[in-house]
């Protein structure tokens, strides 16, 4: 028996273990940067709209670092092994997308496009559902980020009233309703996306309740 077969197999297993640990460490660093960005962006919930651009500015360093961390991760992955290891970083990418989407809403009051995400995070969003031949952010990860925006909007509607920014909940309500209408056009085949989409109605309801309370109190025209 030629035991070299087993020696070669062990070398291959060692290489895979090393790659696994490298990916794990890269994702851990990305999560760390995402937490710092989230901490900075969360300040938007305690200031009026006039100060939110300053909040976004405070997170710019973290977004630059996210871009770098994702680039470093991409260099570890060959296109043919993309889906083999994809689950290891997918949740981190969803988080990064949600932060980028929230920051663009805060600064420009609009929905971030896939092109915006590419610019902020430095990787293509695979919106055309083509076969993956490069390291990309999947369309599902982008959509998870969009769904997360609803949760931030519902919090922002409540917290805006606390800081006496009465007009903002109305703007949030209009934007969230339009965004929800757009989402309803999608035929979601991903189970996780479908479940999260079903939860959006609770965020919409919370935003509407803020609007109702303001009207009852005579604070809206």
UniProtKB/TrEMBL annotation:
Domain of life of the organism encoding this protein: Eukaryota
CDD domains with a match to the protein in the record: Translin
Entry GO MF terms: RNA binding; sequence-specific DNA binding; single-stranded DNA binding
Localization terms from the record: Cytoplasm; Nucleus
Biological process according to GO: RNA metabolic process
Entry keyword annotation includes Nucleus: yes
InterPro entries (UniProt xref): Translin (IPR033956), Translin_C (IPR016069), Translin_fam (IPR002848), Translin_N (IPR016068), Translin_sf (IPR036081)
Keyword Hydrolase among UniProt keywords: no
Any Pfam family: Translin
GO cellular component: cytoplasm; nucleus
Location (main, coarse): cytoplasm
This protein's UniProt keywords: Cytoplasm, DNA-binding, Nucleus, RNA-binding
Entry similarity comment: Belongs to the translin family.
Protein name: Translin-1
Native organism: Coemansia asiatica
Gene that produces this protein: tsn1
């Amino acid at each position: 028996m030629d035991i070299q077969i087993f020696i070669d197999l062990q070398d291959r297993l060692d290489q895979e273990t090393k790659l696994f640990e490298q990916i794990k460490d890269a994702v851990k660093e990305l999560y760390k940067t995402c937490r710092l960005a989230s901490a900075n962006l969360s300040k938007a919930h305690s200031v009026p709209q006039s100060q939110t651009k300053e909040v976004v500015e405070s997170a710019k360093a973290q977004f630059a670092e996210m871009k770098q961390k994702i680039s470093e991760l991409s260099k570890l992955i060959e296109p043919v092994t993309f889906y083999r290891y994809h689950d290891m970083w997918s949740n981190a990418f969803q988080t990064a997308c949600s932060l980028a989407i929230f920051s663009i809403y805060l600064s420009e009051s609009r929905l971030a496009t896939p092109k915006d995400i590419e610019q902020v995070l430095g990787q293509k969003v695979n919106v055309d559902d083509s076969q993956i031949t490069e390291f990309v952010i999947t369309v599902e990860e982008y959509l998870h980020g969009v769904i997360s925006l609803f949760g931030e909007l519902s919090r922002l509607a409540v917290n805006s009233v606390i800081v006496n920014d009465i007009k903002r909940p109305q703007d949030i309500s209009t934007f969230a309703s339009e965004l929800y209408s757009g989402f309803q056009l999608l035929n979601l085949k991903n189970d996780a996306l479908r479940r999260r989409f079903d939860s959006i109605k609770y965020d919409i309801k919370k935003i509407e309740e803020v609007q109702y309370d303001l009207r009852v109190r005579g604070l809206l025209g």
